[in-house]
Queue: 2 jobs
Job 1
Amino acid sequence: MKEAAYVFIMTNRPYGTLYVRVTSDLVKRTWQHKESFVDAFTKKHGLRRLVWYEQHASMIEAIAREKRIKRWHRDWKVNLIQSMNPAWDDLYDKVAS
């Protein structure tokens, strides 16, 4: 059975603070951030908008991709988001449906 693996970016507003993470359940994890369920960095900075995500074949691949993206310059991350989501829309409803 294939495990789900996603790399995702949350923000508080277009061009705002960027948060890059990996998860096996994108809908659940995004919901937790949107509802400030976990008292952490995302709650402190109001990061409730899912603006980019990418699915991978395995968690190992997703973690490797996450680590690469975290080392990128901010401009590269912004370009990555804009390539998928130029309006910086919240993609939560898209992935939750």
Job 2
Amino acid sequence: MTEPIVVTAVFVPAPGQFDAVHAALLPAIAAVHEEEGCLLYAIHRAPDDSIVMIEKWDSAALLDAHGAGDAVAALNASLEGKLARPVEVTRLEPLPAGTDLQGTL
């Protein structure tokens, strides 16, 4: 059995593009929630108005399939010209601490 994998993706909207970036993410989220292996795919607004996506996948293989899939391709196309810089994607390695429920994502 493989370990679940957690990922963050940070979207920095170009000036005046926050609402457009947010709107572009919504259909992608709906599509990705239907993908095999998607355990969590949620967005949050950071104080600097970047949008941070937190993802959790059953395995790295299913995350890789997601990255090569139609939903990501459509999202990338819909974000064209709306971002101040490329999306920063980071795969995270868990360091469990505390209780099983509260100490891991």
